[in-house]
Amino acid sequence: xxxxxxxxxxxxxxxxxIVGKKPQVQDCVACLLAGGHLLxxxxxxxxxxxxxxxxxxxFGLQFSxxxxxxxxxxxxxxxxxxxxxxxxxxxxxxxxxxxxxxxADEINRASPKTQSALLEAMEEKQVxxxxxxxxxxxxxxxxxxxxxxxxxxxFALPESQLDRFLMRISIGYPDRAAERExxxxxxxxxxxxxxPAVVTPHELMQIQQQVLQIHAAGPLxxxxxxxxxxTRSGQWFLQGLSPRAGIAVVRAAKAxxxxxxxxxxxxxxxxxxxxxxxxxxxxxxxxxGRGPVEQVRAMVESVPLP
Length: 306
Fold this sequence. Notes:
The protein is an alpha/beta fold. 46% of the residues lie in helices and 15% in strands.
């Protein structure tokens, strides 16, 4: 099986667990293929945690889950050194962050101090504990879930933290046919536990290299720059996108092109990933009357295609 067939099999497998949500599932896979971290924001009970589990199992990745709470400490994530009497020395006991996939469940229920402990891990793929820097496994992904900000006991993620997520997606409620399948079918958790690995971690890293080789032509990069300039014009958003956000858009569009079976990026790829890749980094102007995602879509309509 070549990479294209494996990716098709992977998407089919994920769609048997998360039914009726093909675009969202494809976005999640594109995010991981682009080497980015994923934020899933939605109300409780729509399958955020199930989707994260299914992704890690389908990619054959070592997985750990942390339930974020208000009293979670940074050391609960990174690990601690404990004095071992038989060795007469302090021995480091690694925390759950030392996994290939860290599911940070309800990340916005933790204090800002604990949220910030993840920043180094997400950006540098390492953690510094007690003055010593320790590398994290490769590949390393954070898949975080969060509840809407208006729910009790949540802390809004700071901009620096949001900026580390390549994509933010929302699953949403299922349609009637998909919900009927959920009501009458097997327990989703049982399904996830029986999922085989379709792609090995080594193959995943090879596919990530393929993503980097996808061609982005000059006119297409001009188009991405036009979109970035539009966000900085003051007409749509309070502050524009950073260069890091622009790089994220190109990487996500390359992953989307690979999933579509192409070796070049088309404007459609950019448009399909743009809301998920940039909306969480932007605040609409006060008189917009629209949310960030709707505002991004309206802005795209105003920028001419290459």
